[in-house]
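During the second year of the project, the team shifted from modelling isolated chains to modelling whole assemblies. The rationale, set out in the original proposal, was that interfaces cannot be judged from single-chain predictions alone. As a representative example for this report, we include one of the complexes processed in the last quarter. Its constituent sequences, exactly as entered into the pipeline, are reproduced here:
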Amino acid sequence: MAISQLSVFVENSRGKLAAITELIAESGVDIRALSIGDSSDFGVLRMIVSEAPKAKAALEAGHHLVSITKVIGVEMPDVPGSMAKVIRDASDAGVNIEYVYAFVAVSRRHAYLVIRAEDNAAAEKILLEKGYTLATEEDIAQL
Amino acid sequence: MEERYWQKEIETAPREQIEAWQSERLIDTVKRVYENVPYYRDMMDKAGVKPEDIKSRDDIVKLPFTCKQDLRDTYPYGLFAVPLKDVVRLHASSGTTGKQIVVGYTKHDLEIWDDCTARQLVATGADENSVVHVSYGYGLFTGGLGLHGGAQHIGATTVPVSSGNTQRQLTIMQDFGSTVLCCTPSYAMFLAETAEKQGIPKENFKLKAGIFGAEPWTEEMRHEIEKRLGLEAFDVYGLTEIIGPGVSYGCHAHDGMHVNEDHFIIEIINPETGEPVKEGEQGEIVFSCITKEAFPILRYRTRDIGYVKYEKCSCGRTFARMSKPMGRTDDMLIIRGVNVFPSQIETVLIKMGYLPNYQIIVDTKDNLDTLAVKVEMGEQHFDDVVKEINRRESELAGELKSLLGVNAKVILCAPNSIERSEGKAKRVVDNRKK
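Output from the structure prediction step:
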């Protein structure tokens, strides 16, 4: 049920982020959503893209450190309070969240909350039990 | 596998025989330099020692030391013991830390050198069927022509590629079927990485042995190179001032390098007092040349730190074995009063599963020395969760702290973000005000 996220190591120096985004642009891959986690010397750029393997290959050819990570995409209505509800439900059920970010799927008229949990499999099970719809790879490809 | 020797009767001679050669040759050399080199005569006169005071190899301790500064002071020919007409070759050191130094060789000296490197090659199993790929730099640097001479001497097919142009090196290695690779360990690692990146399987190479030296490296790195290039990696040691590569050489036992003691006398001294240390104890390595004609340097302080042992090796050789130098006294960093060698840092990195692609950055903050180590990550170290990367950094920093005794900041960085060198690796950036 998990979806693919492209994770890229970005050194904290001028021009690095530009070089990475240009490579993705040249590969013709569409970025649906992104977030960046950073520390003082580096950042990790995390993206939901139309074709993760293609973008990964393009970045690797440019000698960047890239991985495809599994994350959970929770479908939610694009109205105030829906993100808070998902996180509350997950948190109450004991899910430890590493990071989250969200994006709106304009064509679907709803939003997705991207969750990377300490234990993704357990988190998925809990969310499904709570009645949430989780995005599949096909859902993301068709956005 | 049967052990092979180039000059078995010499390489496995009884210790008494080796010492007898050393005594006889030292006496002769001291006499010769006293007569022919005014600089040495002055030094010996000042130290109050005459050639006749040297009656055996044990009297070597009476002689004054020679230092790099002596070579600079006598630049270019002041320490030559023969007229220039008898000198057939000159070499010079790179002079990275000051004025370059010049050494000379007579025809006979080149023959000695060929024997020294031939012993190294044969100890790796090389013979006339070998294709010896020499990627050390050719020119004034002794690396290239040193191994080249030995390779031709044993009748191997010698490929004088010299350094640089990694792409061409890989093509030649595959097309010419190189069986022995000679280069610096950091360059061997770079060749392996480049081949992997290009998807060239190691089966495409016919490499059997690698002869690596000219910079400090660790046992862990030796294993790593062996695994990646599919060869057996041997340590070779040498320095321009003594003869070049082949002063001492590794064997299949990989337990120290055999000093060519029929040509050189090794001593280990306390670098502060100049006194000899006990067998097996670490100190500064000192060499004397006892057969060379043009440049017979005596008691030369190499600034390399290591130890020596005299017991017979499992390979059958009786030549003394010196340890891989753990660094040069001038590579040694003093961080907040603690001695740190780059090789110690490398040992930790490899133990923790990183490649030896690193840079050490020393600086000052609030009048205190700071040590930072930039280390390239592999795919297996990368994680989408930042705190996981930070955890790896702290883990490495903890290991470094426990080995070095000083705090080091670890910065994990992307692959290939640290500049590669085709010759000697530049491991240290010291930004402290001198």
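The first strand of chain B starts at residue 89 and ends at 92. The radius of gyration of chain B is 22 Å.
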